[in-house]
Sequence to fold (217 residues):
Amino acid sequence: MTKHATKISDDAQCAHDYLLQLGKLTVDFAQVERVPHYGPDRPESDVEHSYHLAISAIEIAADFHPELDTGLVAQFSLVHDLPEVHVGDVPTFDISDEDRAKKEADEKLATERLLRELPPHLADLLERYEKQIEPEARFVRFIDKLLPSVIHSTVPDVNRAIFKQRYGMHTLKDIEAGDAARIAYLQNLFPEFDFIHIVRSLVVKTSRDSIFNTETK
Fold:
């Protein structure tokens, strides 16, 4: 066998191994459940959330932030939550400072582990995303924070029950109590995206109107 043929054979074996590794990763990632629900016994999975983020972020970027690279936005969207395959999803709604710090520490360890396991391109993407330096990475992280409200408003009856049972919130007044702190937190975290802050306020209002309609007050 020639050197060229040997290299092709070795590359094909490497690609084969990557495909099997990523197949298992996808299956495991799909088992990670999130708080938003698609149906009464149907929690959203991390795979579904990542797809939702990718198509949402590239559309908003293309239409309203044309300075961003939509290809990179899509790639960051697909890898942004991959560490949760090792640590699970921890919701940040109404989270305490102590629990937020623990979540971040656990995710840091999970990311370090995953960076040693992933194929090189995905590992590079995830590392770049976690650094939160590139505007596309920061944009994806902000859009990510809007999507639970989108799912809540899309399936309001099911998610209304989640808010009541998980958070003890039954009215608009309940959920609005801590909103000023959340707004301040996000404005401090993403000062460069004024437009997305406006979009977030509209999305949150739609979500709340859907979940806490006049029948539930």
Q: What stands out?
A: The chain is about 75% helix and 5% strand. The first strand starts at residue 33 and ends at 39.
